[in-house]
Specification:
By secondary structure, this protein is an alpha/beta fold. It is built from 12 helices and 14 strands. The longest helix has 18 residues. This is DegT/DnrJ/EryC1/StrS family aminotransferase.
């Protein structure tokens, strides 16, 4: 089976070397030396002031909302993974959906101001497939209306925008280091802020909100991660350059072999260095998408409807917001297999099946 993704694994002996160190120290978690080393290496790689390595890419969104004191309405995108919206709901905030741009698939900043109410406190936007939101426009709106900005940058590790890490924008950016990501720690995530006044609070919120054994400052959460996960990150980080290069090579083959008469994909900003995190294709209709999906599965190829459904349509949303562009694109999009080790002949096979079933 050719799956939509396959986890990159470093040399086993390199990982075992770190595991042996953990065994010798008998410190498995609680801000151990490998975790601190990984945080330092990530800050250096990304060029950010502060970063906290956490347990996953969802809890960091919750911590971000808590750290910024967001309690009411959050303007957000309907075209993302459900974790974006779930984090808002779990913090007892209200998601307010704004439709997406039909070209970039990111939140449409021209629609944000119309959605602002007296209860609006923040904007939580996703850099979809690692493609940057219109960060300047969002920042201008946020400043005008005194709103906080949180970027769900789960897909954006290694992406730079105008020479800066995409994770350095907003009041807070978060990232996922899940095993399916360009850079992974098996499970994991990070929270990044360039605001010094937030640094200690983020550190404490990740660790139950207390300093030492006696100073309990506020209600934090257990967002810590272990030495074992940090070890995987330390093994994988030196390989990020080659991982991105390998993914770009796969991108190039898809670009060349797919017939684009009836297909489209997101328009990328010209100001980025991309990480090639996903290869989404939007078909002319949902029926064509389903036909292609069925044909691929019959050939033991498993794409993914990523993202589907449009989050504004989930049955547990407190309010319904019409987002016709997101609802349309989410019904027609497939992410194609993309991972280090995917062979050129396999990519060719996938493209041939798509081309044949699009033209029927």
């Amino acid at each position: 089976m050719i799956n939509v993704t396959k986890t990159f694994l470093p040399d086993k002996e390199e990982y075992i070397k770190y595991i042996s160190e953990i065994w010798d120290r008998v410190q498995l978690t609680n801000n151990g030396p490998l975790l601190q080393k990984l945080e330092a290496e990530l800050k250096k790689y990304l060029g950010v002031d502060d970063l906290y390595f956490c347990s996953n890419g969802t809890v960091v969104l919750q911590i971000a909302l808590k750290a910024l004191g967001v309690k009411k309405e959050v303007i957000t995108t309907p075209f993302s993974y459900c974790a974006t919206t779930n984090s808002i709901l779990w913090e007892n905030c209200t998601p307010v959906f704004v439709d997406i741009d039909a070209n970039t698939f990111n939140i449409d900043p021209t629609l944000i101001e119309a959605a602002i109410t007296p209860d609006t406190e923040a904007i939580m936007a996703t850099h979809v497939y690692g493609n940057p939101c219109e960060v300047e426009a969002i920042e201008e709106i946020a400043k005008k209306h005194s709103l906080k900005v949180i970027y769900d940058s789960a897909h954006a590790f290694g992406v730079t925008y105008k020479g800066k890490s995409l994770l350095s924008f907003g009041d807070i950016s978060t990232c996922s280091f899940h095993a399916t990501k360009v850079f992974h720690t098996i499970e994991g995530g990070a929270i990044i802020s360039n605001h010094p006044e937030l640094h200690e609070k983020l550190h404490l919120l990740r660790a139950f909100g207390h300093r030492g054994d006696e100073d309990y400052l506020f209600a934090g959460i257990n967002g810590k991660n272990s030495e074992f996960h940090a070890a995987m990150g330390l093994c994988n980080l030196p390989h990020v350059g080659e991982i991105i290069a390998a993914r770009k090579a796969i991108f190039d083959i898809y670009d060349e072999t797919l017939i684009w008469d009836t297909l489209k994909k997101p328009v990328q900003s010209p100001d980025i260095s991309y990480n090639y995190s996903y290869y989404p294709v939007v078909f002319s209709s949902e029926s064509v998408m389903r036909r292609v999906q069925k044909a691929l599965l019959e050939n033991e190829i498993a794409p993914r409807r990523y993202f589907y459904p449009s989050l504004n349509t989930l049955p547990f949303m407190p309010n319904y917001f019409s987002c016709p562009v997101s609802e349309d694109i989410s019904s027609r999009v497939l992410c194609l297999p993309l991972y280090v080790g995917l062979l050129p002949e396999e990519i060719q096979k996938i493209s041939v099946i798509i081309n044949q079933n699009c033209c029927m």
